[in-house]
Design brief:
The chain is built from two helices and six strands. By secondary structure, the protein is of the alpha+beta class. A three-stranded antiparallel beta sheet has the order 1-4-5. Strands 2-6-3 form a three-stranded mixed beta sheet, with no helix packed on it. It starts with a helix and ends in a 7-residue tail after the last strand.
């Protein structure tokens, strides 16, 4: 066999080996590229989940801040409503037909109505059992007429918003009278 014939016979083997080498190299590169794609896809999914969680946290923080701000402002107006109510109590009894008193009383009602429209509900507690979550005991008086820890008198009304106490009612509670033997 001549050298040329040998070369022709060896050429297909070399070509096949080269093609095989190129194919395996391409397959290796493709597998590596697929691994990288999967890695980047997982990274993108994690980043997207982190972004959604961050947005939800920021939204929650903003809502919480708005609620706290609204409560802080409402507490100031609640104090004004309390002062108006206390100022009007003795005057209304004396001069029920006075237009000036009626005007101030209308302003008070508008203020209470504005608070109610913003979700701040007034609650009265006279006669209830003392609950430290809803009541602020300013006085404790011995009483035989009332059960211990019951509310004798409400000094200022409490306010709630969305089922939570914004300001507790200020009250006087009954205590057991001291034993006369002591």
């Amino acid at each position: 066999m001549s050298t040329e014939e040998q070369r022709e016979e060896e050429t297909p083997d070399i070509v096949e080996e080269a093609e095989s080498s190129v194919t395996s190299d391409i397959e290796a590169r493709l597998a590596e590229a697929e691994r990288e794609v999967d890695q980047f896809k997982r990274l993108a999914q994690r980043a997207q989940a982190d972004l959604i969680n961050f947005r939800n946290k920021v939204r929650g923080d903003q809502e919480s801040l708005q609620a706290r701000t609204a409560e802080r402002v409402a507490r100031r107006f609640i104090e004004v409503a309390d002062q108006l109510e206390q100022a009007l109590a003795p005057i209304v009894a004396e001069s029920a037909d006075n237009q000036w008193v009626a005007g101030v009383e209308a302003i008070y009602q508008n203020l209470v109505s504005a608070l109610r429209s913003e979700g701040f509900e007034r609650f009265d507690v006279a006669g209830e059992q003392f609950d430290p979550r809803r009541h602020d005991a300013l006085l404790a008086s011995p009483s035989t007429e009332h059960a211990p820890n019951s509310i004798i008198r409400q000094m200022t009304a409490g306010y709630m918003r969305n089922g939570e106490v914004v300001r507790p009612a200020q009250v006087e509670i009954a205590t057991s009278p001291p034993d006369s033997a002591e």
